[in-house]
Amino acid sequence: MKAQTLEALASIKEAKIPYIVAINKIDKPNANVERTQAGLAEQGVYLEGLGGDVPWSAISAKVGTGVDELLDLILIVAELQEFKGDTSVPAKGYVLESHRDQKRGQAATLVITDGSIRPGMTVLAGRALSPVRILESTAGKTLKEATFSTPVQLVGFDELPEAGASFQTYTSKREAENTRSGLAREEKKVPVVAPTSIDETGHFTMPLIVRADAAGSLEAITHELTRLKDEHSSVQIVQSGMGTISEGDVKTALAGTIPAAVIGFNVAVDPIAEDYARHHGIRIEIFDIIYKLTERVEELLRASRPKRAVEEVVGRAKVLKQFSSRKDLHVIGGAISEGYFARGASVRVTRRNTTIGVGKIKNLQSHKADVERVETGSEFGAQIASPFEIVPGDIVECFTTSLK
């Protein structure tokens, strides 16, 4: 079973809501309904007729097999659960999808769970408000009224509502605006704070504010950006949504230890927000292609994360002889087995597979002449500064340190 199926199942069980299992793609040659039934049983889903009480149907959404039976089953379950609605009250429900229509403005598809909606009313979805001037079916047909269990399209929101947001319909615009004002006052009591840039483990997090034109775009962008990470750094979206980049977005960008970049996809920037960002040094960038947006954020992550000291072993040698040892200065002779040793480089000394400590090459000789560097296969003499003694048999690694 796919991960998204298990995730949906877990959500259903947690919410304790009735459900129906539709086993799809039975038109495929390799379809195996019995195997799917067994997999469901392993997850604690026991189907009707197989020792359980969960309704199910085998279908092919592609060719239509079993779809009518599934629809009948949905009606039966709804009747048994006594799902009821009241057509006399203003509609409420959820936003399925939203997008920006280039000709008509900001639009959303809504599914009504109770009540009725008709032209002349006002819809509030999250903080997005729209008067109901033209009500359409998902096929684009104009409707005079719609009631529960009906998906409808509405155009005219003052900002894009978020997919999954609940909506409520009001008989007057003033009532909807008053409700929105009350919600805004509550939101101000709980400020959004961006995360600190570096945690206790040294992991760097680059905060981002993301705005997109539609829920589908936002989901795709979020998916791509959360993949931009390695063991030392990652991107964290501290605030996201649909619609115009606002002054509030810019203020949120300033809330963290380091300012967040504000990234938009096919959206406009409010002039006030643009001025505020320019005054406070907040970066706002707009894109119309997702992969270019992703590439740019990756560049910002590389440029923003703190440089780390990275060690690279460039040579290894075995100590053959100790010529002198006094205080913190030791003269040894050795043979390089790989790489090279260089004057001024750091060395790490290992004895019987245990690291003794780190020192520094003060002078380097080959054939009794001072040299800057000796290569693989050469014997050498070296004066090494270290607080510990270096003895024959020790392994010495030469390494460089750079910021990356």
Automatic annotation (TrEMBL):
The keyword Cytoplasm does not apply. Residues 90-168 form the Elongation factor G-like domain. Residues 202-298 form the Translation initiation factor IF- domain. It comes from Candidatus Kaiserbacteria bacterium RIFCSPLOWO2_01_FULL_54_13. This is Translation initiation factor IF-2. Keywords: GTP-binding, Initiation factor, Nucleotide-binding, Protein biosynthesis. GO terms for cellular component: cytoplasm. Belongs to the TRAFAC class translation factor GTPase superfamily. Classic translation factor GTPase family. IF-2 subfamily. Residues 2-75 form the Tr-type G domain. The keyword Protein biosynthesis applies. GO terms for molecular function: GTP binding; GTPase activity; translation initiation factor activity. Pfam families: EF-G_D2, GTP_EFTU, IF-2.
